Amino acid sequence: MWIKLTSEYVNLAHVIRVKTSKTFRNGQDEWAVELEGVIKGELQYFSRYRGVDAEILLSALNVGRTP
Questions:
Q1: Residue 38 falls in which region: left (phi positive, over 0), alpha (psi -120 to 50) or beta
Q2: What would you report as the CA-atom Rg of the chain, rounded to the nearest whole angstrom?
Q3: Hey, which of 14, 16, 24, 49 has its CA 20 to 30 A from 3?
Q4: Is 40 helix (H, G, I), strand (E, B) or coil?
Q5: What is the pLDDT of residue 64?
Q6: What sign for the dihedral angle of Cα 19, 21, 23, 29?
């Protein structure tokens, strides 16, 4: 399944590991999401997503979290 972030598309079918953390940036808490996936048989690290992109990923992955 492809999802559209603010500046790119991510294929969730390739994702095998999701790391979430709460970060502190510009005086506010926000979510950060790191994705790892398999592309052409090799484990690859995807970029770290923050802010709106992290919220989109968390809702698409339906990760249980508290505000």
A1: beta
A2: 12
A3: 24
A4: coil
A5: 54
A6: positive
